[in-house]
Specification:
Blueprint (H helix, E strand, L loop, with lengths): L11 E5 L11 E4 L2 E4 L1 E2 L3 E2 L18 E2 L6 E5 L17 E3 L7 E4 L5 E8 L4 E5 L5 E5 L2 E9 L14 H9 L2 E5 L5 H9 L2 H18 L6 H25 L1 H23 L3 H23 L4 H19 L6
Parallel strand pairs: 5-6
Antiparallel strand pairs: 1-7, 2-3, 2-8, 4-7, 9-14, 10-13, 11-14, 12-13
Length: 324
């Protein structure tokens, strides 16, 4: 495209936003000492025949193709363009945008060289999109990330036609940015704890079974069912109490109640306080181990696998003494 073909008097800067209700203050653009306010709505050209999506404002000739974004803000920047200016001349500008409720922020690399530096006090970011940041720092106080994308890194050219749907789709899919994911809440922690239910139930049954064989004391199958019900009830207690006290304290209360109940019951069934305390200690250790796994993010699978290996090794060792 030749510079003479560019219609600078129709130039607009468009910001795509998924939800305008989150905007807290007026949005404006500052450049070369000028301040230009953004207006709601963006020109949209529907590339899909029969979809029923109408164009917004201005003519279709200068519309943004449907598929890139359809909701946002626009600002006419023709006043910033000097008559007869070179199309290669840089036009620095700054935009202040304050929003609530955003799930993420993304950038489409349309520049020859697109650089982005995003900083936030959000402690749980998820870097997303076609390009990952070159450098990143994440801690409890927030994060910072830097991107650099060359025009050679993307699959569309510097200039594209509005009716080139393939290039538009490539442009839309080339975005990069960050999602502000929610830290694990009490319900997610409850769901994670449920995933380990079969492990606790199985290992508890194995412990009771070994004690039954080694001590030559018979345990009625009905007692196994009662122990299983008590272990399942733990998760109901955990969920209900966590809605009042929070997950960590609820886990302690539910685990203590379940452990004491099963310890007292099995001590009575086996007629041995020592064996009841042994089962209680095993349950307390299991609940502590699972709690540690739930709190971990990066190494939960590794620690869980090593823990299962250790449990299996102990079971195999004591199984040598079992004679059926």
């Amino acid at each position: 495209m030749q510079p003479s073909q560019v219609r600078w008097n129709d130039a607009e800067l468009i910001i795509g936003l998924s939800d305008l209700k989150g905007i807290k203050e007026n949005v404006s653009l500052q450049s070369n000492g000028q301040t230009i306010s953004f207006e709601p709505g963006i020109p949209v050209e529907n590339l899909e025949a029969g979809s029923g999506i109408a164009a917004v404002s201005v003519s279709d000739k200068f519309a943004v193709p449907y598929g890139l974004f359809t909701v946002g803000l626009n600002a006419k920047i023709d006043s910033l363009i000097k008559p007869g200016s070179d199309s290669q001349e840089a036009l620095p500008f700054a935009i202040s945008l304050k929003m609530n409720g955003s799930e993420g922020i993304y950038i489409v690399p349309v520049g020859k060289t697109t650089t982005a530096d995003i900083k936030s006090d959000w402690a749980t970011p998820s870097f997303d999109g076609e390009f990952l940041p070159q450098t990143r720092e994440i801690d409890k106080t927030g994060f910072s990330a830097q991107w650099k994308v060359l025009d050679l890194n993307r699959s569309f050219g510097q200039v594209i036609r509005a009716d080139n749907s393939n290039a538009i789709n490539q442009m839309a899919s080339s975005r990069f940015g960050v999602r502000f994911i929610q830290a694990v809440d009490q319900y997610q922690q409850n769901m994670r704890s449920v995933k380990y239910a079969i492990l606790i139930i199985l290992l508890t049954f194995v412990a009771v079974f070994f004690i039954e064989l080694l001590q030559k004391k018979s345990v009625n199958p009905f007692q196994y069912i009662l122990v299983g019900l008590a272990l399942v009830l733990f998760y109901t207690l955990l969920l209900s109490i966590s809605e009042v006290l929070g997950f960590n304290l609820a886990y302690l209360v539910a685990a203590t109640m379940t452990t004491l109940l099963i310890m007292a019951h099995m001590g009575s069934i086996l007629k041995s306080r020592k064996q009841g305390l042994l089962i209680g200690a095993l349950l307390a250790f299991l609940y502590l181990f699972i709690f540690i796994l739930i709190q971990m993010e990066s190494y939960a699978l590794l620690v869980g696998s090593l823990g299962l290996f250790a449990f299996l090794a102990v079971i195999m060792y004591y199984s040598k003494k079992v004679k059926l």
